[in-house]
Amino acid sequence: LDLWEKTDGKSGKxxxxxxxxxxxxxxxxxxxxxxxxxxxxAYLKLYDGHDWKWFCVRLEHTDMEYLRKYWSGKKASAxxxxxxxxxxxxxxxxxxxxxxTKTPVKEQVICSVDLGINTDAVCTIMRADGTVLGxxxxxHPSEKDRMYRALGRIRRFQREHGSxxxxxxxxxxxxxxxELGKKIAGAIVRYAEENHADVIVFEYLEMQGKIPGKKKQxxxxxxxxxxxxxxxxxxxxxxxRVSRICAWNTSRLAYDGSGAVTRDWEDYSLCTxxxxxxxxxxxxxxxxxxxxYFIRELLKPLPVTERSLLEA
Length: 312
Hints:
The protein is built from eight helices and 16 strands.
């Protein structure tokens, strides 16, 4: 505001926006301090209409136990006050420094992940020479069944009563979908950590335009980007890197180089290679994802002439 008054003042006057419930930061020792006697208390400096005074605030014991168990010793920033659902909350942000792995490409162990709709994720532990050290199918059928039953109830309710009163049912379904994404991301990172993977490899999954067919609703509820984002946060905390590769033809081509596959329409998770071999399509795609990552990383430091000759 001071700077705006010193200038011509023709542009919009800056003002404090409070409609979005954004509260100021409570800086330590000036506006916020922790309780000395009881660990579940804090003191905030607030204006009571006449003067600025220290007010004691009780914090949830379970929340404080969680912070003491998992975030003790980490650097905590000044808390921010938030207003949600007619209640006030203190939001703490913690900072930790983690050194990501710097293993050379030829010595790396990766976890290539093929995210799907029928099977939540197919993970393959792979080395640069193509050795497969482990495979895992991650699926949560009970959680998906619960969500699809909720979608069926919404569909029947809308057919009878219209879509005006379905907000609560949609909120419940979206919560189930969010929880499913958290479980998938946690399972992927745990499996990669168990096998000492250096990199978790995903596909770039971009879906634009109209989605035809009866799987339209399933694809709209598929939290592919959210799963990758959660995996990235968890993997970085454990020192693992995350990489993404082009998704073209990873499912359409066989991992053994025999060419395009024929999808089994009775069991869509299976396919037939041109050699007559029947194989799991998602597992073949996870092999291709890992191979494409290593090819890209090995070709990247080479000159353009050598790279073009190798690609040819």
